[in-house]
C-alpha cells in the first residue's frame, strides 16, 4: 500500500491544505462514512471502476461517479464505497480556498457530489491522464501543482473579511461570537452571511458547528477517560444534550458508539 501526503508549493498552499495519493489499499468493509469537516475535496480516481455514493439510512445507491468528482462542503455525513484496490489522488481545499479555481459560488455544490469533468471539462480529463502517466507519487504531486497553478494565474484571495472570520472561527484561542466577529469586520448581518456562504459554502453559524464537532473528534482521539458533560462545556456547547444532538447530526451515531467503531482516521467510520 502507498499513502503519501504532500503540501503544495506557494502560493497554492494558501488555498489547498494538501494533496494525498493512495494506492493498493484493501479494507475488510465495503463502505465508509465520512464526517463533515468544512472542506471541499476533489477526488481523481485513477482506476476505471465507477464509485458509488449511498443514501445514508437505506444504503441504496444514490449516484455513481467515474474518473473524478468534486465533493462540496458537507452539511452532514457522506456514505461511499471504501477505497478497495484504490488508485486515487485527493485534493483537500482549505475552507474558502476554492475561490481562485472555480468561477461559481462554492455554496452551489454544498452538500453535493458533482462529476469533475462537468465542472472543469476536458481540462480535468487531461489532468487525470497526466496523473496516470506520472510513475511516482512525487511526479504526481508536481503534475497537480502545475495543474492548479494553471487554473488560476491571478490567485484571487478570498475577501479579507472572510479570511479573518475563518481564522477566528477555527482558532482554539478565539472567544469571539459570530456577532462580535461580524461587528469587527463592519459588514451588515445579511451581507456577511451572503459573502461567507458564497466563499466557504456554509453560513458562519453552520461552519462553526462543524469546526466545534471536529474539535470533539480530536479530543476523543487524545483522551482516554472522557466525561461528556465536561467535554461539552469545555468546547462551548450549551449542555450535554446539545452536544449529543450535534454529534449525531454530523456522524449519525452517538459519541460512545463512535469510540467503539472508529478506526485509524478520526473522520471516518466503517459501514458494513
Short description:
The chain has 272 residues and is an alpha+beta fold. 40% of the residues lie in helices and 19% in strands. The protein folds into 2 domains: 2-151, Jelly Rolls; 160-271, Homeodomain-like (Arc Repressor Mutant, subunit A), CATH 1.10.10.60.
**CATH fold name of the largest domain:** Jelly Rolls
Strand order of the largest sheet: 1-2-9-4-7-10
**In angstroms, what is the radius of gyration?**
19 Å
Order of helices and strands: EEEEEEEEEEHHHHHHHHHHE
Structural class: alpha+beta
* Global shape: globular
Mean pLDDT: 93
What does this structure look like?
The chain has helices at 116-120, 122-133, 137-151, 160-170, 178-185, 189-200, 204-222, 228-234, 240-251, 255-261, and strands at 2-6, 16-23, 31-34, 41-45, 51-54, 61-65, 68-71, 78-81, 87-93, 113-115, 268-271. It is an alpha+beta fold and 272 residues long. The protein has two domains: 2-151, Jelly Rolls, CATH 2.60.120; 160-271, Homeodomain-like (Arc Repressor Mutant, subunit A). The chain has a six-stranded antiparallel sheet. Strands 6-5-8-3-11 form a five-stranded antiparallel sheet, with no helix packed on it. The longest helix is centred in the C-terminal third of the chain and has 19 residues, at 204-222. It starts with a strand and ends with a strand.
Amino acid at each position: 500500500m502507498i499513502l503519501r501526503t504532500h503540501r503544495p508549493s506557494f502560493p497554492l498552499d494558501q488555498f489547498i491544505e494538501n494533496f494525498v495519493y493512495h494506492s493498493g489499499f484493501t479494507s475488510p468493509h465495503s463502505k465508509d462514512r465520512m464526517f463533515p469537516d468544512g472542506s471541499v475535496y476533489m477526488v481523481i480516481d485513477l482506476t476505471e471502476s465507477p464509485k458509488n455514493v449511498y443514501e445514508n439510512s437505506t444504503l441504496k445507491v444514490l449516484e455513481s461517479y467515474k474518473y473524478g468528482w468534486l465533493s462540496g462542503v458537507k452539511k452532514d455525513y457522506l456514505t461511499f464505497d471504501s477505497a478497495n484496490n484504490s488508485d486515487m489522488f485527493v485534493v483537500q481545499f482549505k475552507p474558502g480556498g476554492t475561490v481562485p479555481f472555480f468561477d461559481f459560488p462554492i455554496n452551489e455544490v454544498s452538500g453535493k457530489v458533482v462529476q469533475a469533468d462537468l465542472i472543469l471539462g476536458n481540462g480535468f480529463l487531461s489532468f487525470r491522464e497526466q496523473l496516470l502517466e506520472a510513475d511516482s507519487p512525487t511526479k504526481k504531486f508536481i503534475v497537480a501543482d502545475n495543474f492548479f497553478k494553471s487554473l488560476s494565474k491571478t490567485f484571487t484571495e478570498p475577501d479579507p473579511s472572510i479570511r479573518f472570520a475563518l481564522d477566528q472561527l477555527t482558532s482554539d484561542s478565539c472567544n469571539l461570537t459570530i456577532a462580535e466577529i461580524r461587528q469587527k469586520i463592519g459588514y451588515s448581518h445579511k451581507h456577511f452571511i451572503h459573502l461567507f456562504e458564497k466563499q466557504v459554502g456554509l453560513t458562519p453559524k453552520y461552519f462553526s458547528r462543524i469546526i466545534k464537532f471536529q474539535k470533539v473528534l480530536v479530543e476523543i482521539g487524545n483522551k482516554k477517560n472522557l466525561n461528556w458533560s465536561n467535554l461539552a462545556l469545555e468546547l462551548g456547547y450549551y449542555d450535554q444534550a446539545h452536544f449529543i444532538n450535534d454529534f449525531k447530526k454530523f456522524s449519525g451515531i452517538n459519541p460512545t458508539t463512535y469510540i467503539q467503531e472508529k478506526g485509524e482516521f478520526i473522520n471516518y467510520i466503517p459501514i458494513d
